[in-house]
């Protein structure tokens, strides 16, 4: 399973841009002892990269009781991150400094979902 967006995924993400801000849904499943690595990544994200690109964490929390999920479909953590535009997110992941710290995220996770959301009108 992919942990990080690939070039073709980012290209499609930008092509399908409806304009305006985007909230990214992050579903995370940690590797054994991966939480500490992810926390290092999250600190760098919040201290440096989100402010640099005008983004903010709207919600971050641990997964809890699954009410509707098959065995193994629950997630360790959920994040919602708002970016001012899809381009801002794309610029962030292309930032050489960001690419240095994203290895922490990659090492921390065994599975992830990173999905752009579109608000209901």
From TrEMBL:
Residues 35-111 form the DUF1330 domain. Gene3D superfamilies: 3.30.70.100. InterPro entries: Dimeric_a/b-barrel, DUF1330. This is DUF1330 domain-containing protein.
